[in-house]
Amino acid sequence: MRVAIIGGGIIGLAAGRELLLRGADVTVFDPAPGGTGGAWHVAAGMLAPGGESAFEFPYLEPLLAASNELWPAYAAELGEVGYDDAGTLSVALTADDVAEARREWAHQKLAALTGSQVRDREPALSPRVRAGAFAPTERQVDPRKVVAALRESLSGRIVPRLVGELSGVADEADAVVVAAGCGTAALTGLPIRPVKGQMLRLRGEPGLIAHVIDGVADGRHVYLVPRADGEVVVGATQEERSDRALTAGGVHDLLRAALDLVPGLAEHEITEFTVGHRPGTPDNAPILGRLDDRTVVAAGHHRNGVLLAPITARLVADLVLTGVADPLIDAFTPRRFGCA
Ligand code: GLY
């Protein structure tokens, strides 16, 4: 079966690799096959099924959990992709922050720890941190390494082409997978919008922090994702905007919260500022399913594109190759928005 994948971001590449492994003749169309324009390039790579589960869309949690279970083996297959299972410490600075965080911890069924208990696990945390919780199954991977490995697995099959209309690939494929992130809206009419995120990358002595830190400090949310080489990814704003401006307020809020929680980061060098756009849907859950007999959509992964890549790849490959949808996919159909 000839399968055209539209979009060479993490979702399109993961689907392409899976289809190729299952015997399909795969071509991925992307305007810049070796480029860094995708949301994956900005993303920190938190694999956080609990911390990123939306209260408002109950079907998302089982999907996030199922993909999280796939990640250890998936990362091993891909090679050295920065997979790290030290776990995540969710922390709160002030009494108000603790009150907000406790709701999250209860939802995730995590036991609350005192400030000194979280500092026992992560000594670089500020003495001002009042409370926290440890989530051992919330891990991290480096999305830039993941994409490099996925590109390698699809070597020679990623074609530099901007697909402006689905009919443009109609004659070249038996099945089409639309995985164009925010660009999926223009191709399909599906309601996918850009949700801006500003991020920073810092660099210092490796080992200042060992866990992913997901924190709230004076009402400012931040996550800190430490890599083995001393890089710390600091994220992220969440703004209903489509511009690419790095703003004083955005950077201030991220740095302020980061330094309030881990004062030692003040000595780190700022090595990168990035702005990206998460592809969001009206319920902020992905759109997975058939648009028509030939076309499958896998887009709108919002805050969870990296986490959901392995399960999305499997579900899409099942649908394309067998025509049978796993029940897990039902809730994510494009039909929920009156499409297809
Ligand atoms: N998953 C983290 C973010 O979207 O900022």
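^ glycine complex. Residues 88-136+194-280 form a domain with the D-Amino Acid Oxidase; Chain A, domain 2 fold (CATH 3.30.9.10). Residues 287 and 334 are 6 Å apart (CA to CA).
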